[in-house]
Amino acid sequence: MAVDLAIKDASHALSISTEAGNKLPGVENAKRHLEIVKEHQGPSGDLAGIYGALRKESNLPYKNDGSE
Fold first, then answer.
1. Rounded CA gap, 3 and 24, in Å?
2. For residue range 31-55, what is the model confidence (pLDDT) as tens digits?
3. Do residues 41 and 49 touch, judged by C-beta distance below 8 A?
4. Between helices 25-41 and 3-19, what is the axis angle to 10°?
5. Of 35, 39, 43, 50, which is least surrounded by CB within 10 A?
6. pTM, whole model, 2 decimals?
7. Averaged over 7-22, what is the pLDDT?
8. Rg (Cα) of the chain, in Å, rounded?
């Protein structure tokens, strides 16, 4: 799934939950990670890029191949 579409879907789910007075912390977390994916891979990034986002949060390079 392309990162822009995933961010759009997460934003929509968060909007609906906010209107209903609820929170979706898992979706909030996923959206934050997807935004990191987009920052590193651009619009061609995909859902699998979340692994790179988690690496960044752990103070590791986004990629595991030593290129970054």
1. 19
2. 999 999 999 999 889 888 889 999 9
3. yes
4. 150
5. 43
6. 0.80
7. 96
8. 13
- Could you give the C-alpha distances from 48 to 15, 23, 44, in angstroms and in order? 24, 24, 11
Cβ count within 10 A of residue 53: 22
Any idea where the domains of the chain sit in the sequence? 3-57
Q: What percent of the chain has pLDDT over 70?
A: 94
Average pLDDT value for the chain: 90
Collect all residues with Cβ–Cβ distance below 8 Å to 35 and sequence separation of at least 6: 7
Q: In angstroms, what CA-CA distances link 46 with 16, 22, 36, 68?
A: 23, 27, 11, 18
